[in-house]
Amino acid sequence: MDQLILSKDLHWDLIEICDKKFQLKKARENNANGLFSNENFSAGEEVFQFNTKNIVTKPSYLTVQLDDHKHFSLDPDFLQYMNHSCDPNIFMDTDQLRLIALKDIHVGDELTFFYPSTEWEMDQPFICNCGSTRCQQFIGGAYSFKPEVILQYQLTNYIKRKVREASKAL
Ligand SMILES: [Zn+2]
Q: What spacing in Å lies between the alpha carbon of 101 and ligand 1's midpoint?
């Protein structure tokens, strides 16, 4: 059986500084990549503006969802290394294409977002081991959550609309 290790217990080595604001790191134990902050941000502050590229009709483990059949890859590429957490410190605003700090962020903090905040049904569901007291365990997209649970998170307008439509259909 795989030994699951919490992100905070990993030993992260700095690979490179990206766009001054980010530290790309790799974990010694499992070669996982992670994106960390190279600056301080206050809750609510804009952290970064990104772009979309390679818009496709089906999701992959690297894409972010814009609409039912619209998924994009993140530009710049290093943003793909931002990991999931059930207690995230980043929100990905796919309308305005920017990252927003959900909490105060300090230099060296790992940047994480809640994957179901942008994804209705993910290409590669997984069992989360983020270690947060909010951990939702099964992460397969917003569709699998009860509305009252998913609505505790900041969600893209697309996901909010999908949650509303799904709860009406019940
Ligand atoms: Zn979790």
A: 18
Residues 6+ apart with CB under 8 A from 146: none
SS3 129: coil
Q: Is residue 2 part of a domain?
A: no
| Per-residue pLDDT tens digits for 11-51 | 999 999 999 999 999 999 999 999 999 999 999 999 999 99
Tokens of 105: 């962020």
CA of 91 to the centre of ligand 1 (A): 16
- When divided into structural domains, the chain yields a total of 1
> What's the distance, CA 130 to chain centroid?
12
DSSP state of 88: -
Q: What is the extent of the structural domain holding 129?
A: 7-169
Q: Summarize pLDDT for 62-114 with one digit per residue, the tens.
A: 999 999 999 999 999 999 999 999 999 999 999 999 999 999 999 999 999 99
Ligand 1 centre from 5 Cα, in Å?
A: 12
Residue 101 to residue 89: CA distance in whole angstroms: 6
